[in-house]
Amino acid sequence: MGAMTVDEIFKDRKKFSEQVFDCASTDLFNMGIQVISYTLRDIKDEENYMESMGQARTSEVRRDARIGEAECNRDSLIQTALAEETRIASKMVNDTEMELYKRNFEMKKAAYDMEVETARAQAELAFQLQAAKVHQ
User: How much is the pTM?
Assistant: First the structure.
């Protein structure tokens, strides 16, 4: 029991309790008393060193929790931004492809319309030529 530091006693109360139980049981057994059950309720010192250690540890835990929460929020914002970036990039690709298909459609339609108009004009000229031959 005397081999443990104050920090070890504070951090590993179970080990400290077991050592106190073993030491006390042995001494009490030598006096004819058998210890059946033992509970360590609290560990205190006159200088409140143990209480200060507890407050320091509580502060560390709170700080670590705030840091963890901030890191989770940061990671969440990063993932949200990446998802939004992916969404916008996909929309731009889709819009670009749609405009390309529209352009290709309009170009093919214009080419087909030109072929039809050319054929119509040739037919009209052929008709006029034939009509002119017939009138001669």
Answer: 0.45
